[in-house]
Amino acid sequence: MTDLATFIRLGFGHITDLEAMDHILFLLALAAIYRPGDWRKALWVVSAFTVGHSITLALAVTGAVRMPTSLIEFLIPLTILVTCIENILVRDWQRDRLGLRYRPVLAGVFGLVHGAGFANYLRDVFAGPIAVPLSGFNVGIELGQIVVLAISACLLVAGDQLIALGGRIHVVSTLRVRTMAVSTVILIVAARWAVERNPW
Fold first, then answer.
1. Closest CA to 55 of 123, 2, 108, 130
2. Which of 141, 160, 167, 170, by CA, is between 20 and 30 Å from 17?
3. CB 92, CB 148: distance < 8 Å
4. Could you read off the pLDDT of 66-90 as tens digits, one per residue?
């Protein structure tokens, strides 16, 4: 197996491992407000997150930026908390034009934080020339994100069908119930992590 393939596998394994549950829950929180027909809007948000974490990953691994691990581990659940709170407060994403515009920006900023977390992990397992490991690891992260989001989409659609079975609910209301339920559960988990990881 080539070095590139090794690091692709490493990145894929990192994002899909249950040890990376904070990153998985962040992706799920991002996806919670979308239906299958909203894939273009979701793509903009996920792409912004990808750009954000790619920038920080490159800067942090090359040593251009260095942030304390304890601070990063605390900030990651905060990004999840803010995303969940936003999901809960905005009642109708389809009509909230401002939200649809700033959400990719927010995802990009939060991607900067998650990228620093990825960088800390990569630094722990690697030392030496950085181009191939960084490229491979980042590709692996992206492939892992695709898998996580595909599974999330299936689970969210299944959740919608279960909610609809409970009564005659309009599609927007079904989406709202699903968004509230998923976001509330993730918010509780993220809040606990934030308290446990508090660096102060």
1. 108
2. 160
3. no
4. 888 899 999 999 999 999 999 998 8
28 touches 182 (CB < 8 A): yes
Measured between alpha carbons, how far is 74 from 157 in angstroms, rounded to an integer? 31
Please tell me the distance from the alpha carbon of residue 200 to that of residue 106, in angstroms, as a whole number.
25
Cα 173 to chain centroid, rounded: 25
Q: Binning pLDDT at 50, 70 and 90, where does residue 187 land?
A: very high
Is-contact 194 79, C-beta < 8 A?
A: no
Dihedral sign (CA 43, 109, 93, 27): positive
Q: Which two tokens stand for residue 56?
A: 């920080």
The tokens for 23 are 């990153």
Q: What residue type is 175 in one-letter code?
A: L
Asked if residue 100 has pLDDT above 80, the reply is no
Helix (H, G, I), strand (E, B) or coil at 17: coil
- Pair 186, 84: CB distance under 8 Å: yes
> pLDDT-based confidence at 124, cuts 50/70/90?
confident
Going by C-alpha positions, the residue among 46, 153, 149 that lies closest to residue 103 is 46
DSSP string, 73-96: HHHHHHHHHHHHHHHHH-S-TTT-
Whether residue 12 contacts residue 148, with contact meaning beta carbons closer than 8 Å, is answered with no
Q: Which of 124, 107, 114 is nearest to 57 (CA)?
A: 114
